[in-house]
Automatic annotation (TrEMBL):
CDD domains named among the record's database cross-references: MtCorA-like
GO molecular function terms listed in the Swiss-Prot or TrEMBL record: cobalt ion binding; cobalt ion transmembrane transporter activity; magnesium ion binding; magnesium ion transmembrane transporter activity
Biological function: Mediates influx of magnesium ions. Alternates between open and closed states. Activated by low cytoplasmic Mg(2+) levels. Inactive when cytoplasmic Mg(2+) levels are high.
Annotated protein name in UniProt: Magnesium and cobalt transport protein CorA
Organism: Microbacterium saccharophilum
Length: 304
């Protein structure tokens, strides 16, 4: 068995080595592409597998999904990783824990690669779960940026879901291929990794659901706070209106006697009632009567 691993090669290096190994031209072209999602293809007798190992940066709360391309034949394992975060040497080190794996050929090595990738998701999900717990605590506080944090983490979880959603089906297909080559009904190690992939996918889907619920709850809380502010503003406005009504009513009551006094205070020679003995009492009575009438009107209208 030949196992070749390239870390961060140029497309020209991949093409040159692929031609040297006699790989299918279409398969070589696929290996030079970047930003592919997890998938499994056949090129002649060779399997072409794309996996997306992930790492989680807790400081920025971001998920980084990288890519590793693996071509597997009956006597060949050809792995290409464009990013240094995908450590092919660590994949080799994983095989040392299972010394009998290498003797079982390239498909056993392929299982080890799947095992390495799915194990790596464990730390990523633990980091995301910890951040979701922090968001739930902030949700009912007065943190203004919690919505931005939810949106950002939700975007990272969606990217992770793109990487993990096809894994279970891919590994099940690999298990069927290997079982067929070995002439058995099933291969337990691949079935175990497929079960882990389903668990990972279910957990990531739960993260998306939790974050969707968090956004809904946050929107509801924001709306409740806004309604409370509107109710408080309405209450203050009503109180101010009541005060304005009272001030206006007393101003009108006070203005009527002032107006009458002003009229009768004009020193013209010829004025009605100026020479009448009842003129002064009449003016006082008129002031009182108008003021009382205004008071009654405003009281009935609940302005006073």
């Amino acid at each position: 068995m030949l196992w070749v691993g390239l870390q961060g090669p140029t497309p020209e290096e991949v093409v040159a080595l692929g031609e040297e190994l006699g790989l299918d031209r279409l398969g070589i072209t696929e290996m030079t592409r970047t930003h592919q999602r997890s998938k499994l293809d056949h090129f002649g007798d060779l399997l072409f597998l794309v996996l997306q190992p992930a790492e989680y940066a807790d400081r920025t709360e971001s998920v980084h999904c990288h890519e590793v391309d693996v071509v597997v034949g009956d006597h060949l394992v050809f792995a290409v990783s464009a990013h240094p975060a995908v450590d092919l040497e660590r994949m080799r080190a994983l095989l040392e824990q299972y010394p009998d794996i290498v003797t079982r050929g390239p498909y056993a090595v392929l299982w080890a690669v799947c095992e390495y990738v799915t194990r790596g998701y464990r730390d990523v999900m633990d980091g995301i779960e910890n951040d979701i717990d922090e968001i739930e605590e902030e949700l009912f506080g007065d943190e203004e940026d919690v919505s931005h944090r939810i949106f950002a983490l939700q975007r990272e979880v969606i990217d992770l879901h793109h990487a993990t959603a096809p894994l279970a089906e891919i590994i099940e297909r690999l298990g069927r291929v290997v079982a067929k080559k070995q002439g058995v009904s099933s291969v337990a190690p691949f079935a175990e990794v497929a079960d882990r992939a389903r668990y990972i996918d279910g957990r990531v889907a739960a993260f998306r659901s939790t974050l969707d619920s968090a956004l809904t709850i946050h929107a509801t809380l924001v709306e409740q706070r806004r309604n409370e502010q509107m109710r408080e503003m309405t209450r203050v406005s009503l109180e101010q209106n009541d005060q304005v009504k009272k001030v206006s009513s007393w101003a009108a009551i006070g203005f009527a006697p002032t107006l009458i006094a002003g009229v009768y205070g004009m020193n013209f020679r010829f004025m009605p009632e100026i020479d009448q003995p009842w003129g002064y009492p009449f003016a006082l009575a008129l002031m009182v009567g108008v003021s009382v009438a205004l008071y009654v009107v405003f009281k009935k209208r609940d302005w006073l």
